[in-house]
Amino acid sequence: MSLGKDQDYFANEEVKLWGIDGFWGMPHHQKVNYYRGTDQKIKQDEKVFKFLVLIFPQTWLEPERVSFYKEQIESGKTPTAISLSVLDIKAPAVWTDDIKPEFIGHWCLAHYILDGHHKMFAASEIGKPIN
User: Fold this and answer.
1) This prediction's pTM
2) I want to staple 88 with a disulfide (CB 3.0 to 4.6 A). Which of 48, 83, 108, 129 is the partner?
């Protein structure tokens, strides 16, 4: 999970480009845990940021089901999760510093997990991929 960690997009990359929210005086808080996918540079100054967004909290997961999927994954099976994906392309019109940021185009690809929360959590616990 990325929320509040070094790999938290909203506390790091987003702040580097847009700064701290002027009204709240803190980084944007998306209020849900998410998994961070692999970023991909697509142009000189544009990058795709991938997110796997959970639609219900981890506390709702059933430990027995998570254990079941851990065993499945460790035995070589690759379960599948289903998501609805949304691409949000954004860039600032101007930036406050005279120095141009490294990446001014943020392509945020969010995969909202519809089915497979137990599978995803199991895979993240053992560090293995799923479909």
Assistant:
1) 0.80
2) 108
